[in-house]
Amino acid sequence: MAALGCKWDALFVLALASLMLSCKGDDLKKSNDYTESVSGGEQSNPHAVKADDLQQNEADGHEGEERDGGGRQWQPTGVWMGEGPEHGETFTAPPSKDQFQEEMVLRPLHSGDIYASFQFRTQWDTDFLHDGNKASHYRLFPKSLGQVLSKFSVRELHISFTQGYWRTMQWGQPFIPSPPGAELWVWFHHTVMDVDENWKELTNVLSGIFCASLNFIDSTNTVEPSASFKPLGLGNATDHRFLRYATLPREIVCTENLTPWKKLLPCGSKAGLAVLMKSEKLFHSSFHSQAVHIRPICKDWQCTSTSWELRQTLNVVFDLYTSGQGKKEWSLFKMFSRTLTEACPLASSSKVYVDVTDNKGGELFDLTPASPLVSTAVVLGDRRTYSVYDLTKKETFGQLRSLNPLLRWKRESDEMLRPLLHAERYVSGFGLQTGEIHTCIYNNHPYRAYPVLLLDTVPWYLRLYVHTLTVTSKMHENKPSYIHYQPSKDRVRPHLLEMLVQLPPHSVTEVTVQFERALLKWTEYTPDPNHGFYVGSSVISALVPSIVAMDTNSTHERPLFSSFFPTKEESSYFMRVYTEPLLVNLPTPDFSMPYNVICLTCTVVAVGYGSFYNLLTRTFQVDEPSTPLAKRLANVIRRLRGVPLL
Amino acid sequence: MATIEIEKRRGRNAALAIAAMVIVVGIPLWWRTTETYRAWLPFSQIDELDSLQLQLSVEVEVVFSRGTLIPELQKKVPLTETREQKHQVDAKTELHYSYETKYRTATIMEEDALNQPTAQEADLSLHMLSESACGSVVVYIIPETSTLLPEGIKVYVGQRRTALLRTGVFQGRGTLKEVLSAVHPLVKQVVDTMSFSHQDILAALSDRLRVGQASKQSLADSMRAIKSSPGYEITFSLLNPDPKSHRLHWDIEGAVHSYIQPLLDKLIPIANFSVDSQILYYAVLGVNPRFDSSVSAYTLNADSLAHVINPVEARLGSNAASSNPMLNFLLYVPDAQHSPLFIRDHGQKEVTSNAFHSPRWGGIMVYNVNDMYSPMTEFPVDININMTKVMGVFLAQLRLLLGVQKTQPPPDFLLQSPGSAGLSDWELDRLLWSRSVENVATASTTITSLAQLLGQISNIVINDNIAQQVSSAVTSLHAALAELEAGNLALALQYSREAILASERAFFDPSLLHLLYFPDDQKFAIYIPLFLPMCVPIVLSLLKIGSDIRQRRTNKLAKKD
């Protein structure tokens, strides 16, 4: 055995020596040669450590051990040596401290498109924020995110990457709204001393984890909203100094963001619902949004201890014409070019929901295979009915061993109920000096007024004239009951405008504010300045009265005694609406101008200088006036004639 | 005539005045406004560091127990002696070793301790008597007749910093000097084993030296060991490619606490370690194992091991929250269809530990679970992993990767196993010696190459913070060298770590990159439209004035003649 060991060592040495010759090149330092040694060929050394020898009692034969050298000359004496289970003995697993759930909702939209929404939820009963029991042993929870949470003392983290704009008027409400581009908002723990520093490092780390340009988040696009973003998890943190919110409306979302997102799932994209996520289909869609939400939640009903919840969501809308070839016929295979064959074995529940609310009695479309399970829930203020496929049950997959729900329409669907709240935004004005931002908020509720919180962040290079801020509903001025305005500082922070506006029933409320466009320094322009500059979406947060409560006449489903007073839970629901991001043109210089100016001024200066210099240094002397040509000619003639000269 | 002369003089004076203005005001102004800020750097001290003189001092105490010295000689001790060795490694590196050896006789308490029945107990009670300083070595010389050591063993190296040396009695021999010179080679061997040998130091200096100076074995050790760094992230990953059939449970928390943590606690002077673990599902190796029907098992050949890690590595992830190097230890449980899986070496023999490691990266162990359940069992099976077995392998790999070097003692040496701490004191000392030398070598090369770079490229801005980092690196380096010379190993390591930190921070400071690539041709493109038309008249008129003066002088000479 020892001789063999020597042989391996010799080989190993040769390999290393060759490696060293190749990578120990010149003086300038430090290529990370250890990665080379991992990937490059023959370094992996089977010279290994003999576990049996390690177990061996030192009493039998010191000499042999010594010659075998370092790896084997000692033995770990543990607390529970050899306590492992006997072969074949049944072993009862300890209750796991984390669990994983996955689900997907398919919602046919009135426009003929289809909306698929994935949610993956990991719950872990641990505490990152207490230093005493440092969480460092991960099972289902991704290690990279856990380390980030504990290092930066993050209490709650919400990050979303969205490609495309959610068309509320055509599609209704999304389950989890998100603005176009990237959005990040984080509540830090109240023990954090320097929130800005933590925020800066956190954005850099997250940009590495998600392969996104989150490192462009700095103080010029970060705000601390005072009311719009309340913690969604445990804890009544109200001190908005520990909150940071930033959006990057320019961010393009693509495969490179999806891959790290999928890597956070315990099953990866190898099993369960995540097998459907093939980027060539997901990004061939009208809307794509992926998000990660982390928050502390109660572990049990009494809330004696907390757990952490990680929700990964992915929403995608497939277009009727580009993905569905214009036929209203949707199946999993048509959408994702995959079908489902199994649940993720680590998931405690794995379900597919199909929204069949509009399909009463199977009139509108056929759903095959039909599912015996039906679930009803109030979602976004509306009572919806879902067919449920439970992937953890074998019979779901049928004889083909694959699940491919197919929706085939029989007739055109009815008009969609207009969403109770939606908003739009645009820039008006002409020229490159001033402009006006219009935000229109629509309350489509027929008889209820309700308040909304409007959050606007505008970059510093659009200088808002706050005195021109007007809020009008139904031709009358509508005075906001709460305004929080933080003026911008050039190159330091953006404008933040938050206000609470009461929306009268069935009305349009228009918020306008004028601005002036600033001139940037020539290094501050983006590489394509003529494309324009983005202004992030406005955020409208509201408690919207629900449709269920509106429908006081429906007595056929519920007993009479239950329906006089609207119940609290169902009477209103929280909703967040994002407007379009704006694209504003700024006055853009000609970028070859500096050089032209330098050349031109230098030339002018040089010419001026040259003549000035000449004037100063030239020697002036009185010249003998020379006789004019006519006179000289006359003199020549006169000399020939012998007449005295002139 | 006179007016012309006056006029000429005025023109000349004007030209001279303008030229003087340009030289006195214009050029300094241009120089000041376009110069890059370069803070002062201690270039002369850095140049001194370029040629490194390392002096390492070891304190050795040699204690003669009763019966090893004749009474006349006993009176002549205690005695102190310093032996020096000098090695010129290459033109720029010189090594001095000085061994300060103190000779004395054993005290009564020590005699008692040496009368213990076994060597382990003697070692322990000697340790209780006095604690020796970090980096020092104590050698007890015991008589031939002692029964502490088994037959054929001459030297016993304990868990601490003591060694027992058995020699014949120096009865008949003459003077003390002869006795000491007889003892010396043996003591030297012990010290080489317990603190450092020349080869170890050469390997630690490999950053500065060309290949071929250090022996291949010690070079391999130092290449395998991960580079010196202020901290390391140790990650244990359990790879479960088949969660449908195996539900694996590992008590990693308890295992780390009882096996890894004691070792890491000992290593605190060297670096900070953080340990975490994760479980990765559906993580497969990069190579398809081949089925060997003769043993009815799947096998992986040593040749293909290099390709095993790559697909897994993408999923291991790095620590997002720190930039320290990572050490990965993977426990791979083969899926039900491909088990059992065995690793074979180049001789087609099975590796009994079923584990292998990759230099500076980490280790992988294959853990077969197929014999823990009968083939009839319904999947998934709950399996508890025997962490004792796993941690034994990982601990051994961790020692190798940390650079606890294999010592090759002479055959009649007996090394005590390090026990539950995982590392004996003298092994730690060896590590400290080579780490401090390595740190000094790395920091000095970093600083010298930084100085060279800054000297070569003149338009790099050197900010004050960089200058401060450089000078603090230089002072820490000097301090480390001084402590090595004084034999204060712990302090030397600490200073060398500071030096390496400061030098790296200076070298990798992003502000050094700012103006690095501002090309000269663009500069001239900006300057030429202004400078060319301005300078040409000045130069021409100066030339004209000069020729005028020469003309006048020749005229004067001609007149005189």
Any key phrases for this structure?
heterodimer, A: 646 residues, alpha+beta, eleven-stranded mixed sheet, five-stranded antiparallel sheet, 26 strands, elongated, B: 561 residues, alpha/beta, seven-stranded mixed sheet, five-stranded mixed sheet, 17 strands, flat
Could you describe the 3D structure shown?
The complex is a heterodimer of chains A (about 650) and B (about 550). Chain A has helices spanning about 1-25, 35-40, 50-55, 60-70, 145-150, 170, 195-210, 255-265, 280, 330-335, 545-550, 570, 595-615, 630-640, and strands at about 100-110, 115-125, 155-165, 180-190, 220-225, 245-250, 285-300, 305-320, 330, 350-355, 365-370, 375-380, 380-390, 405-410, 420-430, 435-445, 450-460, 460-475, 475, 480-485, 495-505, 505-515, 535, 540-545, 570-580, 580-585. Chain A has about 650 residues and is an alpha+beta fold. In chain B, strands 2-3-1-4-6-5-17 form a 7-stranded mixed sheet, sandwiched between helices. In chain B, α12 (about 425-455) runs antiparallel to α13 (about 465-485). At the A-B interface, α1, α2, α3, α4 and α5 of A face α1, α8, α9, β9 and α10 of B.
Quickly describe the structure.
The complex is a heterodimer of chains A (646) and B (561). Chain A has 14 helices and 26 strands.
Beta-strand residue percentage of chain B? 15-25%
Helix count, DSSP H or I runs of 4 or more residues of chain A: 14
Cα gyration radius of chain B (Å): 35 Å
Shape summary of chain A: elongated
Mean pLDDT of chain B: 79
State the helicity of chain A in percent bands: 10-25%
- Name the biggest interface: A-B, 111 and 121 residues
Mean pLDDT of chain A: 80
| Biggest sheet features of chain B | 7 strands, mixed
Please give the number of β-strands of chain A. 26
Mind sketching the topology for me?
The complex is a heterodimer of chains A (646) and B (561).
Chain A: H1 2-23, H2 33-39, H3 51-55, H4 62-68, E1 98-108, E2 114-124, H5 143-151, E3 154-163, H6 168-171, E4 181-188, H7 195-209, E5 222-223, E6 243-248, H8 255-263, H9 279-282, E7 287-298, E8 306-318, E9 329-331, H10 332-336, E10 349-355, E11 365-368, E12 373-379, E13 382-390, E14 406-409, E15 421-428, E16 434-443, E17 450-458, E18 462-473, E19 476-477, E20 482-486, E21 495-503, E22 507-517, E23 533-535, E24 539-545, H11 547-550, H12 568-571, E25 572-578, E26 582-584, H13 593-617, H14 629-641
Parallel strand pairs in A: 1-10
Antiparallel strand pairs in A: 1-2, 2-8, 3-4, 3-7, 4-6, 5-6, 7-8, 9-14, 10-13, 11-14, 12-13, 15-16, 16-22, 17-21, 17-24, 18-19, 18-22, 20-21, 23-26, 24-25
Chain B: H1 2-34, H2 43-50, E1 52-64, H3 71-76, E2 79-90, E3 93-105, H4 108-114, H5 119-129, E4 137-143, E5 155-157, E6 162-167, H6 176-194, H7 198-204, H8 216-224, E7 231-240, E8 246-249, H9 252-266, E9 272-281, E10 290-292, E11 297-301, H10 310-316, E12 326-332, E13 341-344, E14 355-358, E15 362-366, E16 381-384, H11 387-402, E17 413-415, H12 425-456, H13 464-486, H14 489-507, H15 520-560
Parallel strand pairs in B: 1-3, 1-4, 4-6, 5-17, 7-9, 7-12, 8-16, 11-13, 12-15
Antiparallel strand pairs in B: 2-3, 5-6, 10-11, 14-15
Helix pairs in contact in B: 1-15, 2-12, 4-5, 7-8, 7-12, 9-11, 12-13, 12-14, 13-14
